[in-house]
Structures are given as structure tokens and as C-alpha cells.
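WARN retry 2 of 3 for item q-0093 after timeout on previous attempt; input resubmitted unchanged.
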Amino acid sequence: MASNQVPSRLWDFCTKWSSDVRNKTSSNRFVLDGRTPYEAVLGHTPDISSLATFNFYEPVWYIEQTEDFPNPKRKLER
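OK item q-0093 returned
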């Protein structure tokens, strides 16, 4: 978190994100038999598309919906 310069007020969000990653990715634990912890508890494979798209506190471009229709405003945020 120091290398990405994450403000300390956002560290609790990083903790939640990292626990989601660990719960929804497989490990080599013998008792899980190659499944994710999420799958072992709930019985179905988790959707990891939200975790695979972006990392925590990664810069992303988005288009702000304004009244300047022909010229949308792109913004860079985290």
C-alpha cells in the first residue's frame, strides 16, 4: 500500500478487497481439494470478474455524464 501511495483512510477498503481475493482464488490447501474457500462453503464457483478487472487503488479512466453530449469528459480517478 505504501508503493501505491494509498491514503491511510482507505486501508480498511484494501483489507476488504484482499480478503475477497483470498476467498475467491484457489490455494494448495489439502482440505480444499483445489477449490476456493468461497466454493467450499457455498457450493458454487465464484464470479471473479470484478476482482480480475482492476487492482486495488489502480488509476482508471471513466466518462463523466454531463450535458456536453458531443464532447464527453474523460477523467482519471482511482
